[in-house]
Specification:
single chain, alpha+beta, 3 helices, 6 strands
Length: 145
Protein backbone atom coordinates (compact mmCIF):
# COMPACT_ATOMS: atom_id res chain seq x y z
CA UNK A 1 0.00 0.00 0.00
CA UNK A 2 1.42 3.38 -0.97
CA UNK A 3 2.52 5.49 1.98
CA UNK A 4 2.64 2.60 4.41
CA UNK A 5 5.41 0.46 5.79
CA UNK A 6 5.38 -3.30 5.98
CA UNK A 7 5.32 -3.49 9.80
CA UNK A 8 1.67 -4.19 10.54
CA UNK A 9 0.27 -1.54 8.22
CA UNK A 10 1.43 1.44 10.29
CA UNK A 11 2.16 4.56 8.21
CA UNK A 12 5.81 5.30 7.59
CA UNK A 13 7.21 8.28 9.53
CA UNK A 14 8.98 10.83 7.36
CA UNK A 15 11.43 13.51 8.50
CA UNK A 16 10.50 14.98 11.88
CA UNK A 17 8.27 11.93 12.59
CA UNK A 18 5.62 13.26 10.18
CA UNK A 19 3.28 10.37 9.21
CA UNK A 20 3.04 9.53 5.52
CA UNK A 21 -0.71 9.38 4.82
CA UNK A 22 -2.24 9.18 1.33
CA UNK A 23 -4.13 12.17 -0.06
CA UNK A 24 -7.82 12.05 0.86
CA UNK A 25 -10.84 14.08 1.87
CA UNK A 26 -12.89 13.87 5.07
CA UNK A 27 -12.39 12.75 8.64
CA UNK A 28 -10.93 9.26 7.97
CA UNK A 29 -7.54 10.23 6.46
CA UNK A 30 -7.03 12.93 9.10
CA UNK A 31 -7.90 10.40 11.83
CA UNK A 32 -5.28 8.03 10.37
CA UNK A 33 -2.70 10.83 10.50
CA UNK A 34 -3.59 11.69 14.10
CA UNK A 35 -3.37 8.01 15.12
CA UNK A 36 0.10 7.76 13.54
CA UNK A 37 1.56 10.91 15.14
CA UNK A 38 4.07 9.65 17.72
CA UNK A 39 4.09 10.46 21.47
CA UNK A 40 3.63 14.07 22.57
CA UNK A 41 3.25 15.18 18.94
CA UNK A 42 0.15 12.98 18.74
CA UNK A 43 -1.23 14.62 21.87
CA UNK A 44 -0.76 18.07 20.28
CA UNK A 45 -2.28 16.90 16.99
CA UNK A 46 -5.39 15.52 18.68
CA UNK A 47 -5.80 18.70 20.76
CA UNK A 48 -5.41 20.87 17.63
CA UNK A 49 -8.00 18.79 15.77
CA UNK A 50 -10.44 19.01 18.70
CA UNK A 51 -9.85 22.76 19.05
CA UNK A 52 -10.44 23.42 15.34
CA UNK A 53 -13.59 21.25 15.24
CA UNK A 54 -14.95 22.93 18.39
CA UNK A 55 -14.11 26.46 17.20
CA UNK A 56 -15.26 26.19 13.57
CA UNK A 57 -18.70 24.58 13.12
CA UNK A 58 -18.95 22.65 9.85
CA UNK A 59 -15.18 22.50 9.30
CA UNK A 60 -14.02 20.24 6.44
CA UNK A 61 -10.87 18.13 6.61
CA UNK A 62 -8.46 16.74 4.01
CA UNK A 63 -4.99 15.22 3.80
CA UNK A 64 -2.62 16.84 1.31
CA UNK A 65 1.19 16.70 1.20
CA UNK A 66 1.20 14.50 4.36
CA UNK A 67 -0.53 17.23 6.37
CA UNK A 68 -4.12 17.67 7.61
CA UNK A 69 -5.90 20.70 6.13
CA UNK A 70 -8.97 22.41 7.57
CA UNK A 71 -11.44 24.59 5.67
CA UNK A 72 -15.04 25.51 5.02
CA UNK A 73 -17.16 24.22 2.15
CA UNK A 74 -17.07 26.65 -0.75
CA UNK A 75 -14.64 28.94 1.11
CA UNK A 76 -11.24 27.24 0.91
CA UNK A 77 -8.64 26.15 3.47
CA UNK A 78 -7.49 28.18 6.47
CA UNK A 79 -5.11 25.97 8.49
CA UNK A 80 -2.79 22.98 8.29
CA UNK A 81 -0.18 21.34 10.51
CA UNK A 82 2.64 18.80 10.39
CA UNK A 83 5.35 17.31 12.57
CA UNK A 84 8.86 18.67 12.69
CA UNK A 85 11.68 17.25 14.84
CA UNK A 86 11.13 19.51 17.89
CA UNK A 87 7.57 20.75 17.37
CA UNK A 88 4.25 20.56 15.55
CA UNK A 89 3.95 23.47 13.10
CA UNK A 90 0.46 24.96 12.78
CA UNK A 91 0.19 27.10 9.65
CA UNK A 92 -2.54 29.65 9.03
CA UNK A 93 -2.78 30.01 5.26
CA UNK A 94 -4.06 33.59 5.67
CA UNK A 95 -1.97 34.27 8.78
CA UNK A 96 -0.61 37.62 7.65
CA UNK A 97 -4.11 39.03 8.35
CA UNK A 98 -4.30 37.66 11.93
CA UNK A 99 -3.77 39.83 15.00
CA UNK A 100 -1.42 39.36 16.64
CA UNK A 101 0.34 37.88 13.62
CA UNK A 102 1.71 34.35 14.23
CA UNK A 103 5.52 34.51 14.47
CA UNK A 104 6.66 32.21 11.63
CA UNK A 105 6.87 33.25 7.97
CA UNK A 106 8.46 31.99 4.78
CA UNK A 107 8.10 32.03 1.00
CA UNK A 108 4.30 32.39 0.98
CA UNK A 109 3.64 36.06 1.76
CA UNK A 110 0.18 35.32 3.23
CA UNK A 111 0.93 32.26 5.40
CA UNK A 112 2.15 32.49 8.99
CA UNK A 113 2.81 29.72 11.47
CA UNK A 114 3.42 28.93 15.07
CA UNK A 115 5.71 26.10 16.21
CA UNK A 116 4.27 24.18 19.17
CA UNK A 117 6.92 22.34 21.23
CA UNK A 118 6.17 19.64 23.78
CA UNK A 119 4.11 21.25 26.56
CA UNK A 120 3.77 24.51 24.60
CA UNK A 121 0.14 24.51 23.47
CA UNK A 122 -1.47 27.91 24.21
CA UNK A 123 -5.11 26.97 23.56
CA UNK A 124 -6.51 30.46 24.18
CA UNK A 125 -4.21 32.10 21.60
CA UNK A 126 -4.68 29.26 19.11
CA UNK A 127 -8.47 29.38 19.45
CA UNK A 128 -8.40 33.13 18.76
CA UNK A 129 -6.23 32.64 15.65
CA UNK A 130 -8.40 29.72 14.45
CA UNK A 131 -11.58 31.80 14.86
CA UNK A 132 -10.02 34.78 13.02
CA UNK A 133 -8.55 32.61 10.26
CA UNK A 134 -11.80 30.73 9.56
CA UNK A 135 -13.64 34.07 9.18
CA UNK A 136 -11.24 35.43 6.51
CA UNK A 137 -11.01 34.63 2.79
CA UNK A 138 -9.17 31.32 2.63
CA UNK A 139 -6.58 29.68 0.40
CA UNK A 140 -8.00 27.87 -2.64
CA UNK A 141 -4.97 25.80 -3.64
CA UNK A 142 -7.14 22.69 -4.07
CA UNK A 143 -10.88 22.19 -4.10
CA UNK A 144 -13.10 21.84 -1.06
CA UNK A 145 -15.76 19.14 -1.22
Amino acid sequence: MSGHSDDGGQPRLLAGDNPQIPKGDGDAPVAAYLAAMPGWKGDIGRRLDELIVRTVPGVRKAMRWNSPFYGLEGEGWFASYHCLTRCVRLTFLNGRSLRPEPPGSGKDEDARWVDIPEGGLDEAQLEDWIRQSAALPEWRGFEVL
